[in-house]
Structure formats: structure tokens, C-alpha cells
Amino acid sequence: MRAQVAFRDVPAKLEGKAVTAPPRPTRIQPVPLATLIARADARLSAGDTTSDAVSDVAVTGATLRAQHVLPGDLFAALLGARAHGADFAAQAIAAGAVAVLTDAAGADRPAVRDSGVPVLVHPDPRAALGPLAAWIYGEPSLALSVLAVTGTSGKTTTSHLVESGLAAAGLTTGLIGTVETRIAGNRLASAFTTPEAPDLQALLAVMVERGVTHVPMEVSSHALSLGRVAGTRFAVGAFTNLSQDHLDFHPDMEDYFQAKALLFDGRSTAEVVCVDQDWGRRLVHEGTVTVSTTGEADWTASNVRVSLSGEQTFLIHTPGGARVEATLPMPGTFNIANALVAAAILDKAGIPIEAIVDGLAQVRVPGRMERVALGQDFTAVVDYSHKPEAVALALDAMRARTDGRVIVVLGCGGDRDTAKRPLMGEAAARRSDLLVVTDDNPRSEDPATIRSAMLTGATGVPAAERGEVVDIGDRRRAIATAVANARSGDVVVIAGKGHETGQEVAGVVHPFSDRDELAAAIRERLGTVAE
Predict the structure, then answer these.
(1) Which residue spans within 318-433 are E strands per DSSP?
(2) Same fold for the domain at 8-136 and the one at 370-526?
(3) Percent of residues, the chain, with pLDDT higher than 70
(4) Which fold has domain 140-362?
(5) How far apart are CA 413 and CA 417, in angstroms?
(6) Contact status, residue 479 vs residue 411, Cβ threshold 8 Å
(7) 125-150 pLDDT, tens per residue?
(8) In this structure, what are the phi and psi dihedrals at residue 266, rounded to the nearest 5 degrees?
């Protein structure tokens, strides 16, 4: 049991803090530091004693960013890729941190050793941080139905499908993911697919305060590997698929898979797995709810029909033997799989099939097979596909719904998995009549070098098996070129950035939206102007 001490009011706005500071609950019950030490199985650094340094200390928050510290916080000084968080301890303490959590190396840094506040030393402070933050914020995931989705592709779409079904059932929802985070309908920008552990626990506590009951949540392999979701209890954990991505972080595909598999280590009360791949089949055990578009499973689909607009209708086969007609306003067999995963998640969350079907029909996912229709005589789509298999699936879906040509604009991000660049170029070249290779987010890399790797893969496809390939680095001009070359009945796909509203070049993020640029190019072609 937590000690019964008075609640402490927390400012609704973080006065003077960076605008990226995550939300905090408005009222927090302080937690005695001694309780946190015991729960974390941590030790106090040399010179601290429980009676002298801990007895009067109470913690009201947690963060691993010194610039986000509020008075009463536990500051987690973690080893990072470029620096050790211990070097920022003085800044954190000046802002009001009452204790520091770090490793032995961090405890020896002067900024920590001479800080004058209790220092909790743990061999793996990152692993300890999630459960500690959950305890500080009142273990909010136990008061919510957190519905987690992991996989290489489909996390965002599936999470939005789940949210749409929950809304159709009349529930108050949260949403945590790549595109955005929402709390009872209020939108926050997303910095990561999955927030850092203390930010996540604070966010969940805010959702509890605001009456949220269900939270669809994307969970990345980074979040699972780095303990960002430690301390979170999931009502449902779901797996979509696995394909090459993030091999700049994971040494190989097996390590990538094992990171995803952590969602199914017992932290999820119910488990849903798409078994269309061997990766998914490896996760199945007694009690797993299975989904498939290609074989036998608990949830399957049949009689798929695709309209000219890309809308799909199909029959959902439920575990109870029912067949229910559903409509999905998105093309692609992979989106049928996403819809089935979402339906299975919603079913385990107690949502009736009628609301599930209503949710599928009403969903809109920003930057995922998102049409830009302004009266032009060709189809124009923005999609976030940014890995080889996702590009192939998206373009196959668009090819299947047109007798015209497929025109593609595609780039690759810098400072990320370099091995996938020629593979993406190859996948796009094989499936397009015109491929415009362009810049994505080059970040710190030379954009021409990135494009060159893509072009190597694209031009390596025999000429008879691919369309025309051109290199236009300027993404705005690349999009305009694709639109200018479109004929009646063609499909133009702007791939890679999807919902993003910026382009990072040499450390600077410039405003840029594929949706806006595509719309502008279409208006220019039609001879109209934006309202």
C-alpha cells in the first residue's frame, strides 16, 4: 500500500519549460523516496543514509530530461548515445529534482556525487525507471484498458481502427502513436512512436484524470528493448507483421523479432497475433487469438471486393462462427489484415461486433493510403510506407485498382538503416511506370548519397521489368513532376513521409507536408488556387 500522504497540486502548464514537455496529471500523491528505493531494489550511493538523506524526501514526478524537471521530481540520469545524463544533474537539481536515479558510473560523476540530494544507484536504471514512474503516478495502466499494437507495418492504421471502434461504442478514448497522441479528443504532437517511460506513465495518469477508459497504443521495438513500456500493464497485446526495418538499431532480424516478442512475455492479459507470416506463428501459444487473410485462424475474411475508389467490402468470420459484412475505406490486402487484428482486439476489449464494423467503416488514418481528391482525373495518394515490404504492398494494392500507370515518388531517410535503401529502390522500380527518386529526411547525411543507393537498387532491375527512373532531389519539384506526368486513370503515390509536416535537412526541420504539396501540384495542374 502507498503511504497516505497529502496530495500535491501540480501546475497544469509547465511554466518556463520547453513546449515539448509532456503533460503531467494535475494532482499527485507524493511517494516516500524510501518506498521507491525498496521497490527498485536500488542502493543509496556512498555518503547517503536512509535516515539522514531519505526520511523526509517525497517524490511527485519523474523525468529523464533535465529541461523538463519540476520541483519534487526524481531525475533519471541515464547513459545515452552521446552523453551521460549524470552530466545534467546540476541543471535538474536546480530545477527542483529531489533525488537522482543512475548507474554506478553516473554516481561517480561530480555533478551527481556532489549534488547534495539522495542518489539511487541501480545496475540497470533504464529498466527500473518504468516501474518506478508507474508507482509515482499511481499505476495508471491498471485503471485503463491499454490496447497495444506492435509490428513493422500497420501499427498506426490498426491503432486508429481500434480507436474508431471504441468511439463507435461510445467510449472515451486516448491514443498513443506515431502520428499523434490524443486524450479524450484533444490532440498532442507525437515525438516518438512510444514515449519514454516517465512521460508515458504521466500521460496515462492524465488520461485517467480526464475520464479516458481505453487507450489504443503503438509499441515500437525500441520501446520494448529500452524499457519505455516497463511498468505498463496491457489489456491486449497484438502483433501485425515483421519485415526489414530498424537494422541500424537491431543487429539482425532475429534480434528485431525478439524485441517485438517482449510484448508477449506475460505483460499483456490477452494476446492477438496475425499468423500470415512465420514470425507471427512463432508467437502463438495456448490462448492466443489468431488472425489471418491467407489461412485458418480465429478471425478471417472472405468475399473481398474493391471499388474504384479503393474502398473494400468483405465478410469477417468471427471465432463464434458469425459472418459479418464490413466496409473499409482503404485499399490493400494488408489493410484487411489490419482490420481483422483491430476487430480481434476490440472483441477482447468487450466491444460488440456492431460497433466494431461501424468503426471500420468510419476510420480515417492520416498519411496512410490517404487520397487527395480535388477533381483531377487520376488518383493521388499519400502513404507512409518507408520500408521495402511496405512499399511493395502499397504499390501492389494501387496497381490492382487501375488500368492506368503507377507513378511513384519515394526517398529514404538519413541516419537510419542503410541496407534497405537499394531494396526500396528495387521494390518501387519493379512496381511503377515512373519512379521519381527524391529526398526524404536526409538528416545529417548527404542527400545525393542516399539517392544513389536507392538508384543502384532501382536501375539494377532489368529495363524490361521496370518503368522509367528519374532522380530529382528537391521533393517539392519531384511531387510536381509526378503530377505533371499523370494521365487520366493513372495513380500517383507519394510515399515515405505520410503524415509528417517537416523535412529534416542538416539538423534543421523545414516545414513540409506531402499532402499539402500534392494538393498544390494538383491545383496548379487544374488551374485553380487554394481557398
Answers:
(1) 323-328, 370-371, 379-383, 406-410
(2) no
(3) 93
(4) UDP-N-acetylmuramoyl-L-alanine:D-glutamate ligase (3.40.1190)
(5) 8
(6) no
(7) 999 999 999 999 999 999 999 999 99
(8) 115, -10
User: Could you say which DSSP state residue 87 is in?
Assistant: G
Q: Pick the closest to residue 378 from 521, 528, 517, 530 (CA basis).
A: 521
Q: Which three cell numbers stand for residue 113?
A: 556525487
| Helices 125-136, 33-40: inter-axial angle, 10-degree rounding | 140
Residue 489 backbone class (left: φ over 0; alpha: ψ -120 to 50; beta: rest): left
Alpha carbon distances (Å) from 288 to 269, 270, 347, 492, 495: 10, 7, 13, 40, 34
Predicted local confidence at residue 308, as pLDDT: 72
Q: Which amino acid is at 133?
A: A
Mean pLDDT (whole number) for 386-390: 88
Per-position DSSP letters for 115-180, written without gaps between them: SSS-EEE-SSHHHHHHHHHHHHTT-GGGGSEEEEEESSSSHHHHHHHHHHHHHHTT--BEEESSSE
Per-residue pLDDT tens for 167-178? Answer: 999 999 999 988
**Whose grid coordinates read 526524481?**
74
Domain ranges of the chain: 8-136, 140-362, 370-526
Cα–Cα distance between 412 and 449 in angstroms, integer? 11
**First CA to last CA distance, the chain:** 59
Superfamily for domain range 8-136: MurE/MurF, N-terminal domain (3.40.1390.10)
pLDDT per residue as tens digits for the range 210-229: 999 999 999 999 999 999 99
* Helix/strand/coil for 264: helix
* Residue in the block written with cell 519540476: 70
Q: How far out from the chain centre does Cα 373 lie?
A: 27
Return the amino acid letter for 447: P
CATH topology for 370-526 is Protein-Tyrosine Phosphatase; Chain A (3.90.190)
**Mean pLDDT along residues 63-68:** 96
